[in-house]
Amino acid sequence: MPKMSVLVSREELQAKTEELAKRISKDYEGKDLLLVGVLKGGFMFLSDLCRALTIDVSVDFISVSSYGNQTVSSGVVRILKDIDYDITGKHVLIVEDLIDTGLTLTYLKDLFTAKHCASVKICTILDKPSRRKVPLDVDYQGIIIPDKFVIGYGLDYAERYRNLPDVCVMEEL
Ligand code: IMP
Ligand code: MG
User: Measured from the CB, is residue 37 less than 6 Å from ligand 1?
Assistant: First the structure.
């Protein structure tokens, strides 16, 4: 294991998830809500979030990857796995692990909006607003973190460390 330190503990993640779930359960009471998890990173937060909700929801996933050079986000997103069903008329809540430049979610929000959903909103457990390249309305904003590369709770470094229960900063990459 590389040297790492905990930036956001599992207890803080759980408390924030419960707080967001309460708001979402209230806001979508009586509505047909579809949670769309953004793979792969969003899988862990989505599984915790949906169990904390007190309303009935459907769950789907989308998998995306940025085109070209990983370090320069172009805003062009390639869909590796699309959602399975027609989402026309549904209330869609996109569930993300971390918003960084905002390019991925801007793309996904536009994509879903074009499919004539009843509404499209965004929920993220972590946010690095200081890194934003495009303005983005985050409807359910989790924990704000500084501009550091983090791993754990779904987030990877070269596909590893997604299973760490806390969000950690690697001291040496
Ligand atoms: P963006 O908002 O389009 O720049 O993309 C955000 C996505 O990039 C996140 O959902 C993560 O999957 C990934 N990402 C951004 N920052 C980090 C990080 O610090 N660690 C791991 N993945 C990250
Ligand atoms: Mg992600």
Answer: no
